[in-house]
Design goal:
308 residues, alpha+beta, five-stranded antiparallel sheet, globular, binds 6-diazenyl-5-OXO-L-norleucine
Length: 308
């Protein structure tokens, strides 16, 4: 980070500049309930490992974190299965959209990575197999990681996605046909939709993800969530696969590990420095927040704080 700049000033100024600019994105209409959101909402929150916090705009409003949850479900599954997990899901960028079926057929039902929908369905299957009460246990895991105890699923969002989840059903059934899903596809899909419906604010997200900037330790209690090596791996996966077929572009423009969701949220991590969350609901053609991407590109450029 360039120490001659005031990070909070930069966040504030960029926020205003980007808020007032044209939004070329569009809402994620394939999940009907996600279209009911006010598309002008915009929030940013940064949490640093020096324990400073700063938010602008709608940073305290909760939104549907969607695929951002895949980082958290992966961490829980990694904790449960250890290195064996990588026999079920690979760690290569897919270069395909998040809901693509193409590679699965030729690659025998082993998803390219845990962040495309196919990979996240396998992770959901692992959690179903290894947790007593998957829905409650996962929620408790997230609440314990976070300082906030009122994080919850949205049944409205989960049901809305469930009603139109034809592609995810196709993915899950195809993986099942190769033997890489152990439970009933309908149970895996139900759990997956619940996971994606989790609602959090930018403030909660940046505070929660800060442990990935802090060598796997939570900031306040110094509780170890992941080893250093595991932390490196999760960050590496976010860097290479966090934005699907826009992961290269995100690395090129922003230069940080991160993860997006079709609710319009993006969280990014600078190892040893900070975690930052941005939320603006309209998405670009690759399904990533249009203004969120622009904000982060300008932010790492102005603060000179990317990892490259
Ligand atoms: O399965 C889906 O399509 C959604 N629940 C999650 C997709 C998503 O967030 C992709 N991220 N940008």
């Amino acid at each position: 980070m360039n120490t001659n700049v005031d990070v909070n000033d930069i966040v504030q100024n960029l926020y205003e500049q980007i808020k007032n600019s044209e939004d070329k994105g569009s809402l994620a209409s394939y999940i009907p309930e996600l279209e009911n959101i006010d598309s002008t909402l915009f929030g940013v929150h940064i949490s640093t490992i020096d324990n400073s916090n700063f938010g602008v705009g709608n940073y305290y409003d909760k939104f549907s974190i969607q695929s951002i949850v895949k980082v958290l479900s992966l961490i829980m599954a990694y904790d449960l299965l250890g290195e064996e997990l990588w026999t079920r899901v690979k760690v290569e960028p897919s270069g395909t959209p998040f809901n693509s079926l193409i590679q699965l057929e030729v690659e025998n039902g082993i998803p390219r990575n845990p962040f495309i929908n196919a990979g996240a369905l396998v992770i959901a299957d692992v959690l179903l197999n290894n947790l007593k009460n998957p829905k409650e246990d996962f929620l408790n895991f997230v609440r314990n990681l976070s300082d906030s105890k009122d994080i919850a699923y949205s049944s409205k969002i989960a049901n809305s996605e469930r009603e139109v989840g034809y592609r995810n059903a196709a993915l899950c059934n195809l993986i099942k046909s190769f033997g890489n899903i152990e439970n009933e596809p309908s149970d895996v899909l139900d759990f997956y939709y619940d996971l994606c419906s989790l609602e959090m604010s930018c403030e909660e997200l940046s505070n929660l993800f800060l442990f990935l900037a802090n060598d796997g330790f939570t900031l306040t209690e110094r509780k170890q969530i992941l080893t250093r090596s595991q932390t490196k791996r999760i960050n590496a996966l976010m860097q290479t696969c966090g934005f699907y077929d826009e992961s290269g572009d995100f690395a090129f423009k922003v230069g940080l590990p991160g993860k997006s969701g079709v609710g319009g949220g993006i969280v990014a991590v600078h190892p040893k420095q900070y975690a930052i969350a941005v939320w603006s609901p309209k998405l670009n053609a690759k399904g990533n927040s249009y203004k969120g991407m622009r904000f982060l590109e300008e932010f790492t450029t102005k603060t000179e704080s990317s990892i490259f």
